[in-house]
Amino acid sequence: MTHQIGIGVIGMGWMGMVHSRAYRQVADRFYESGIRPRLVICADEAEERTRRAQETLGFEQVTTDWREVVEHPAVQVVNIAAPNYLHLEMVRAAAAAGKHIFCEKPVGRTPEETAEIEYLARKAGVLSFVGFNYRWAPMVQYTHQLIQEGQLGRLTHYRGRFFSMYGSNPYGLLTWRFDREQAGLGVLGDIMSHVVDMAHMLAGPIRRVVSRRHTFITERPLPRPAAGGTHFAVGQPDDPKGPVTNEDYVSALVEFENGAQGTLESCRVIFGPKCEMAFELNGTRGAARWNFERMNELELYLPEGTQAHDGYTRLLAGPGFPFHGRFNPGDGIGIGYEDLKAIEAYQFLQAVVEGTPRPPGFREALQLASVQAAMVRSWESGTWEEVVSLERQEPA
Protein backbone atom coordinates (compact mmCIF):
# COMPACT_ATOMS: atom_id res chain seq x y z
CA MET A 1 0.00 0.00 0.00
CA THR A 2 1.26 3.46 -0.87
CA HIS A 3 1.14 6.23 1.73
CA GLN A 4 1.64 9.71 0.30
CA ILE A 5 2.43 12.26 3.01
CA GLY A 6 2.48 15.98 2.31
CA ILE A 7 5.52 17.74 3.78
CA GLY A 8 5.96 21.44 4.52
CA VAL A 9 9.39 22.67 5.64
CA ILE A 10 9.98 25.94 7.50
CA GLY A 11 13.53 27.30 7.41
CA MET A 12 15.66 26.50 4.38
CA GLY A 13 19.14 26.99 5.79
CA TRP A 14 21.54 24.07 6.09
CA MET A 15 19.28 22.01 8.35
CA GLY A 16 16.11 22.65 6.35
CA MET A 17 17.87 21.45 3.20
CA VAL A 18 19.16 18.37 5.04
CA HIS A 19 15.67 17.47 6.23
CA SER A 20 14.23 17.96 2.76
CA ARG A 21 16.82 15.69 1.17
CA ALA A 22 16.11 13.13 3.90
CA TYR A 23 12.42 13.01 2.98
CA ARG A 24 13.38 12.47 -0.65
CA GLN A 25 15.51 9.48 0.37
CA VAL A 26 12.72 7.68 2.23
CA ALA A 27 10.93 6.40 -0.88
CA ASP A 28 14.22 4.88 -2.09
CA ARG A 29 15.91 3.61 1.09
CA PHE A 30 12.66 2.31 2.63
CA TYR A 31 10.81 1.49 -0.57
CA GLU A 32 8.81 -1.46 0.73
CA SER A 33 7.23 0.74 3.44
CA GLY A 34 5.09 2.37 0.78
CA ILE A 35 5.83 5.80 2.25
CA ARG A 36 6.05 8.42 -0.47
CA PRO A 37 6.81 11.88 0.93
CA ARG A 38 5.55 14.78 -1.17
CA LEU A 39 7.49 18.04 -0.83
CA VAL A 40 4.52 20.40 -1.00
CA ILE A 41 5.84 23.77 0.17
CA CYS A 42 8.82 25.36 1.91
CA ALA A 43 9.26 28.72 3.59
CA ASP A 44 12.14 31.00 4.43
CA GLU A 45 12.39 34.74 4.90
CA ALA A 46 15.19 34.71 2.30
CA GLU A 47 13.40 34.15 -1.02
CA GLU A 48 16.57 32.98 -2.77
CA ARG A 49 16.77 30.03 -0.37
CA THR A 50 13.25 28.90 -1.20
CA ARG A 51 13.90 29.20 -4.94
CA ARG A 52 17.02 27.09 -4.66
CA ALA A 53 15.09 24.47 -2.67
CA GLN A 54 12.40 24.41 -5.33
CA GLU A 55 14.89 24.06 -8.17
CA THR A 56 17.10 21.44 -6.54
CA LEU A 57 14.66 19.45 -4.39
CA GLY A 58 11.39 19.82 -6.26
CA PHE A 59 9.13 21.64 -3.81
CA GLU A 60 5.83 22.36 -5.52
CA GLN A 61 5.44 25.78 -3.92
CA VAL A 62 7.59 28.28 -2.02
CA THR A 63 6.82 31.23 0.23
CA THR A 64 8.45 33.76 2.52
CA ASP A 65 5.58 33.46 5.03
CA TRP A 66 5.85 30.35 7.21
CA ARG A 67 2.14 30.54 8.07
CA GLU A 68 1.33 29.48 4.52
CA VAL A 69 3.11 26.17 5.21
CA VAL A 70 0.97 25.53 8.29
CA GLU A 71 -2.26 26.51 6.52
CA HIS A 72 -1.63 24.57 3.30
CA PRO A 73 -4.38 21.92 2.92
CA ALA A 74 -2.01 19.35 1.36
CA VAL A 75 0.51 19.54 4.22
CA GLN A 76 0.20 16.80 6.85
CA VAL A 77 3.65 17.23 8.40
CA VAL A 78 5.16 20.58 9.36
CA ASN A 79 8.95 20.37 9.63
CA ILE A 80 10.45 23.19 11.71
CA ALA A 81 14.10 23.99 11.02
CA ALA A 82 13.91 27.68 11.92
CA PRO A 83 15.89 29.45 14.70
CA ASN A 84 14.97 28.55 18.26
CA TYR A 85 13.08 31.74 19.10
CA LEU A 86 10.46 30.89 16.47
CA HIS A 87 9.74 27.32 17.57
CA LEU A 88 7.02 27.98 20.12
CA GLU A 89 4.95 30.20 17.83
CA MET A 90 5.28 27.77 14.95
CA VAL A 91 4.41 24.71 17.02
CA ARG A 92 1.41 26.52 18.47
CA ALA A 93 0.11 27.27 14.97
CA ALA A 94 0.85 23.79 13.60
CA ALA A 95 -0.76 22.03 16.56
CA ALA A 96 -3.85 24.23 16.29
CA ALA A 97 -4.07 23.29 12.62
CA GLY A 98 -3.90 19.58 13.49
CA LYS A 99 -0.58 19.04 11.68
CA HIS A 100 2.02 16.53 12.82
CA ILE A 101 5.25 18.26 13.80
CA PHE A 102 8.95 17.57 13.33
CA CYS A 103 11.05 20.12 15.24
CA GLU A 104 14.81 20.43 15.41
CA LYS A 105 16.45 20.50 18.80
CA PRO A 106 16.42 22.23 21.14
CA VAL A 107 12.65 22.21 20.94
CA GLY A 108 12.32 25.29 23.18
CA ARG A 109 14.73 28.06 24.08
CA THR A 110 14.33 27.10 27.74
CA PRO A 111 13.10 24.00 29.57
CA GLU A 112 9.85 25.80 30.36
CA GLU A 113 9.30 26.63 26.69
CA THR A 114 9.86 22.98 25.76
CA ALA A 115 7.26 22.00 28.37
CA GLU A 116 4.80 24.42 26.77
CA ILE A 117 5.49 22.97 23.32
CA GLU A 118 5.01 19.39 24.53
CA TYR A 119 1.72 20.38 26.16
CA LEU A 120 0.42 22.07 23.00
CA ALA A 121 1.11 19.01 20.84
CA ARG A 122 -0.28 16.59 23.43
CA LYS A 123 -3.44 18.65 23.87
CA ALA A 124 -3.93 18.83 20.09
CA GLY A 125 -3.38 15.08 19.69
CA VAL A 126 -0.75 15.48 16.97
CA LEU A 127 2.37 13.35 16.57
CA SER A 128 5.78 14.89 17.12
CA PHE A 129 9.41 14.07 16.45
CA VAL A 130 12.75 15.71 17.34
CA GLY A 131 16.05 15.78 15.46
CA PHE A 132 18.19 13.67 17.77
CA ASN A 133 19.82 12.03 14.77
CA TYR A 134 22.89 10.57 16.48
CA ARG A 135 20.77 7.88 18.11
CA TRP A 136 20.12 6.39 14.63
CA ALA A 137 23.76 5.51 13.86
CA PRO A 138 23.87 1.74 13.24
CA MET A 139 26.57 1.14 15.86
CA VAL A 140 24.61 3.16 18.43
CA GLN A 141 21.49 1.15 17.66
CA TYR A 142 23.52 -2.04 18.05
CA THR A 143 24.80 -0.87 21.44
CA HIS A 144 21.23 -0.17 22.50
CA GLN A 145 20.26 -3.66 21.37
CA LEU A 146 23.07 -5.24 23.42
CA ILE A 147 21.96 -3.31 26.51
CA GLN A 148 18.32 -4.29 26.07
CA GLU A 149 19.32 -7.93 25.67
CA GLY A 150 21.37 -7.77 28.88
CA GLN A 151 24.62 -8.70 27.16
CA LEU A 152 26.54 -5.91 28.90
CA GLY A 153 25.03 -6.80 32.26
CA ARG A 154 23.85 -4.12 34.67
CA LEU A 155 25.11 -0.68 33.66
CA THR A 156 27.39 0.88 36.26
CA HIS A 157 29.11 3.80 34.49
CA TYR A 158 28.15 6.20 31.68
CA ARG A 159 30.26 9.04 30.24
CA GLY A 160 28.76 11.18 27.49
CA ARG A 161 30.19 14.22 25.74
CA PHE A 162 29.81 16.52 22.75
CA PHE A 163 32.85 18.64 21.95
CA SER A 164 32.74 20.87 18.88
CA MET A 165 35.04 23.59 17.58
CA TYR A 166 32.33 25.58 15.79
CA GLY A 167 32.65 28.47 18.26
CA SER A 168 36.38 28.20 19.00
CA ASN A 169 37.38 31.16 16.82
CA PRO A 170 36.95 34.31 18.94
CA TYR A 171 36.09 36.17 15.74
CA GLY A 172 33.22 33.83 14.93
CA LEU A 173 30.18 36.02 14.41
CA LEU A 174 27.67 36.80 17.14
CA THR A 175 24.88 34.87 15.41
CA TRP A 176 21.62 33.98 17.13
CA ARG A 177 23.10 30.87 18.73
CA PHE A 178 25.19 33.06 21.06
CA ASP A 179 22.26 35.28 22.10
CA ARG A 180 20.06 34.23 25.03
CA GLU A 181 17.03 36.11 23.75
CA GLN A 182 17.04 34.28 20.41
CA ALA A 183 18.65 30.93 21.24
CA GLY A 184 17.78 30.63 24.90
CA LEU A 185 20.28 28.30 26.52
CA GLY A 186 23.70 28.12 24.90
CA VAL A 187 25.58 24.85 24.71
CA LEU A 188 23.14 23.23 27.18
CA GLY A 189 20.38 23.58 24.61
CA ASP A 190 22.41 23.27 21.45
CA ILE A 191 24.64 20.22 21.84
CA MET A 192 24.31 18.99 25.44
CA SER A 193 20.75 18.13 24.41
CA HIS A 194 22.19 15.36 22.19
CA VAL A 195 24.32 14.10 25.09
CA VAL A 196 21.39 13.86 27.48
CA ASP A 197 19.12 12.27 24.87
CA MET A 198 21.75 9.61 24.15
CA ALA A 199 22.21 8.96 27.87
CA HIS A 200 18.46 8.56 28.29
CA MET A 201 18.24 6.11 25.40
CA LEU A 202 21.18 3.96 26.48
CA ALA A 203 21.34 4.24 30.27
CA GLY A 204 17.81 5.31 31.20
CA PRO A 205 16.31 8.23 33.16
CA ILE A 206 18.53 10.53 35.23
CA ARG A 207 17.60 10.96 38.91
CA ARG A 208 19.77 13.91 39.97
CA VAL A 209 22.61 16.15 38.78
CA VAL A 210 25.22 18.63 39.89
CA SER A 211 26.32 20.93 37.09
CA ARG A 212 28.70 23.74 36.12
CA ARG A 213 28.72 26.25 33.25
CA HIS A 214 31.23 28.71 31.81
CA THR A 215 31.49 31.25 28.99
CA PHE A 216 35.04 31.35 27.60
CA ILE A 217 34.50 33.88 24.80
CA THR A 218 32.44 36.74 26.21
CA GLU A 219 32.13 38.93 23.09
CA ARG A 220 32.07 38.37 19.34
CA PRO A 221 31.97 40.44 16.12
CA LEU A 222 28.49 41.58 15.15
CA PRO A 223 27.08 39.91 12.02
CA ARG A 224 27.28 41.65 8.69
CA PRO A 225 25.16 40.60 5.68
CA ALA A 226 28.22 40.09 3.51
CA ALA A 227 29.82 37.78 6.07
CA GLY A 228 27.02 35.21 6.03
CA GLY A 229 24.70 34.11 8.80
CA THR A 230 25.72 30.61 9.92
CA HIS A 231 27.45 29.82 13.19
CA PHE A 232 30.57 28.95 11.17
CA ALA A 233 30.91 32.50 9.75
CA VAL A 234 33.93 34.54 10.87
CA GLY A 235 34.38 38.32 11.15
CA GLN A 236 37.46 40.52 11.49
CA PRO A 237 39.38 41.56 14.63
CA ASP A 238 38.41 45.22 14.21
CA ASP A 239 34.68 44.57 13.65
CA PRO A 240 32.24 46.03 16.21
CA LYS A 241 31.52 43.48 18.93
CA GLY A 242 28.62 42.50 21.14
CA PRO A 243 28.28 40.35 24.29
CA VAL A 244 27.76 36.59 24.29
CA THR A 245 24.81 36.07 26.63
CA ASN A 246 24.67 32.29 27.04
CA GLU A 247 27.12 29.57 28.03
CA ASP A 248 29.98 27.98 26.03
CA TYR A 249 30.54 25.03 28.34
CA VAL A 250 28.46 22.74 30.57
CA SER A 251 29.46 19.73 32.64
CA ALA A 252 27.55 17.56 35.07
CA LEU A 253 27.88 14.63 37.41
CA VAL A 254 24.75 12.51 37.12
CA GLU A 255 23.09 9.64 38.93
CA PHE A 256 20.73 7.47 36.91
CA GLU A 257 17.56 5.95 38.30
CA ASN A 258 19.05 2.47 37.82
CA GLY A 259 21.98 3.38 40.07
CA ALA A 260 24.55 3.93 37.32
CA GLN A 261 26.93 6.84 37.83
CA GLY A 262 27.99 9.18 35.07
CA THR A 263 29.45 12.37 33.69
CA LEU A 264 28.12 14.56 30.89
CA GLU A 265 30.12 17.33 29.23
CA SER A 266 29.77 19.64 26.23
CA CYS A 267 31.61 22.62 24.81
CA ARG A 268 31.38 24.66 21.60
CA VAL A 269 34.70 26.53 21.93
CA ILE A 270 37.08 23.69 22.82
CA PHE A 271 40.15 23.52 20.57
CA GLY A 272 40.82 20.14 18.93
CA PRO A 273 37.68 18.00 18.61
CA LYS A 274 35.71 18.74 15.45
CA CYS A 275 32.44 16.93 16.17
CA GLU A 276 33.11 14.58 19.06
CA MET A 277 29.66 13.38 20.03
CA ALA A 278 30.63 10.31 22.02
CA PHE A 279 29.85 7.93 24.85
CA GLU A 280 31.60 5.31 26.93
CA LEU A 281 29.58 2.91 29.06
CA ASN A 282 30.41 0.04 31.33
CA GLY A 283 28.30 -2.80 32.66
CA THR A 284 28.93 -5.78 34.88
CA ARG A 285 29.53 -8.06 31.87
CA GLY A 286 30.93 -5.76 29.17
CA ALA A 287 31.59 -2.27 27.91
CA ALA A 288 31.23 -0.16 24.76
CA ARG A 289 32.49 3.16 23.42
CA TRP A 290 31.55 5.16 20.31
CA ASN A 291 32.53 8.48 18.77
CA PHE A 292 30.65 10.19 15.94
CA GLU A 293 33.93 11.27 14.37
CA ARG A 294 34.35 7.54 13.68
CA MET A 295 30.65 6.80 13.51
CA ASN A 296 30.98 3.56 11.54
CA GLU A 297 33.07 1.96 14.27
CA LEU A 298 32.27 0.59 17.72
CA GLU A 299 34.73 -0.53 20.38
CA LEU A 300 33.16 -3.41 22.26
CA TYR A 301 34.41 -5.37 25.25
CA LEU A 302 32.59 -8.68 25.72
CA PRO A 303 35.12 -11.06 27.30
CA GLU A 304 34.68 -14.75 26.61
CA GLY A 305 36.92 -16.12 29.34
CA THR A 306 40.05 -16.36 27.20
CA GLN A 307 43.05 -14.05 26.97
CA ALA A 308 42.57 -13.80 23.21
CA HIS A 309 39.35 -11.86 23.71
CA ASP A 310 40.17 -10.04 26.95
CA GLY A 311 40.11 -6.48 25.59
CA TYR A 312 38.19 -4.09 23.39
CA THR A 313 37.42 -5.24 19.85
CA ARG A 314 36.89 -2.74 17.04
CA LEU A 315 33.76 -3.51 15.04
CA LEU A 316 33.13 -2.00 11.60
CA ALA A 317 29.60 -1.18 10.49
CA GLY A 318 28.03 -3.27 7.78
CA PRO A 319 24.68 -4.69 6.67
CA GLY A 320 24.53 -6.95 9.71
CA PHE A 321 23.93 -3.92 11.93
CA PRO A 322 20.66 -1.94 12.21
CA PHE A 323 19.74 0.18 9.14
CA HIS A 324 23.18 -0.04 7.50
CA GLY A 325 22.03 -2.34 4.70
CA ARG A 326 19.54 0.31 3.60
CA PHE A 327 22.44 2.34 2.27
CA ASN A 328 25.07 -0.14 1.08
CA PRO A 329 25.65 -3.91 1.13
CA GLY A 330 29.29 -4.00 2.21
CA ASP A 331 31.07 -4.38 5.53
CA GLY A 332 33.31 -1.43 6.30
CA ILE A 333 31.66 0.82 3.70
CA GLY A 334 30.60 3.76 5.82
CA ILE A 335 27.43 5.79 5.85
CA GLY A 336 27.23 9.49 6.76
CA TYR A 337 25.41 12.21 8.68
CA GLU A 338 22.65 12.75 6.14
CA ASP A 339 21.94 9.02 6.06
CA LEU A 340 21.08 9.29 9.76
CA LYS A 341 18.64 12.04 8.84
CA ALA A 342 17.02 9.72 6.28
CA ILE A 343 16.54 7.05 8.96
CA GLU A 344 15.13 9.73 11.24
CA ALA A 345 12.66 10.94 8.59
CA TYR A 346 11.52 7.37 7.95
CA GLN A 347 10.94 6.72 11.64
CA PHE A 348 8.73 9.79 11.94
CA LEU A 349 6.75 9.15 8.77
CA GLN A 350 6.21 5.53 9.79
CA ALA A 351 4.75 6.85 13.05
CA VAL A 352 2.44 9.10 11.02
CA VAL A 353 1.30 6.14 8.91
CA GLU A 354 0.67 4.00 12.00
CA GLY A 355 -0.86 6.85 13.99
CA THR A 356 1.32 5.83 16.95
CA PRO A 357 4.09 7.89 18.59
CA ARG A 358 7.70 6.79 18.16
CA PRO A 359 10.62 8.19 20.13
CA PRO A 360 12.15 10.67 20.17
CA GLY A 361 9.14 12.98 20.21
CA PHE A 362 8.21 15.95 22.35
CA ARG A 363 7.74 13.60 25.31
CA GLU A 364 11.43 12.65 25.14
CA ALA A 365 12.30 16.33 24.65
CA LEU A 366 10.35 17.07 27.84
CA GLN A 367 12.34 14.45 29.76
CA LEU A 368 15.50 16.11 28.47
CA ALA A 369 14.19 19.56 29.43
CA SER A 370 13.54 18.33 32.97
CA VAL A 371 17.22 17.37 33.23
CA GLN A 372 18.27 20.74 31.77
CA ALA A 373 16.13 22.54 34.33
CA ALA A 374 17.84 20.62 37.14
CA MET A 375 21.24 21.60 35.70
CA VAL A 376 20.22 25.27 35.59
CA ARG A 377 19.09 25.09 39.23
CA SER A 378 22.41 23.50 40.12
CA TRP A 379 24.28 26.41 38.51
CA GLU A 380 22.62 28.66 41.06
CA SER A 381 22.66 26.37 44.11
CA GLY A 382 26.10 24.87 43.54
CA THR A 383 24.89 21.48 44.71
CA TRP A 384 22.98 18.36 43.66
CA GLU A 385 19.48 18.90 42.26
CA GLU A 386 16.74 16.32 41.76
CA VAL A 387 15.26 15.94 38.27
CA VAL A 388 11.60 16.93 38.52
CA SER A 389 9.25 16.46 35.57
CA LEU A 390 8.13 19.71 33.92
CA GLU A 391 5.06 18.07 32.39
CA ARG A 392 2.10 20.44 32.29
CA GLN A 393 -1.25 19.08 33.36
CA GLU A 394 -4.69 19.92 32.03
CA PRO A 395 -6.40 22.63 34.08
CA ALA A 396 -8.75 21.23 36.71
Beta-strand portion reads 15-25%
Per DSSP E runs of 2 or more residues, the count of β-strands stands at 17
CATH superfamily of the largest domain: Dihydrodipicolinate Reductase, domain 2
The CATH class of the largest domain, by name, is Alpha Beta
Under CATH, the topology of the largest domain can be stated as Dihydrodipicolinate Reductase, domain 2
- Biggest β-sheet description: 9 strands, mixed
C-alpha geometry: globular
Q: What order do the helices and strands follow?
A: EHEHEHEHEHEHEHHHEEEEEEEEEHHE
Mean pLDDT: 96
Ends distance: 43 Å
Using the 3D structure, state the CATH architecture of the largest domain: 2-Layer Sandwich
How many structural domains can be distinguished in the coordinates? 2
Radius of gyration: 21 Å
Q: Order of strands side by side in the largest beta sheet?
A: 16-15-14-13-7-12-11-8-17
Structural class: alpha/beta
Instruction: Point out poorly predicted stretches.
Output: none
Count the DSSP helices: 11
Share of residues in helices: 25-40%
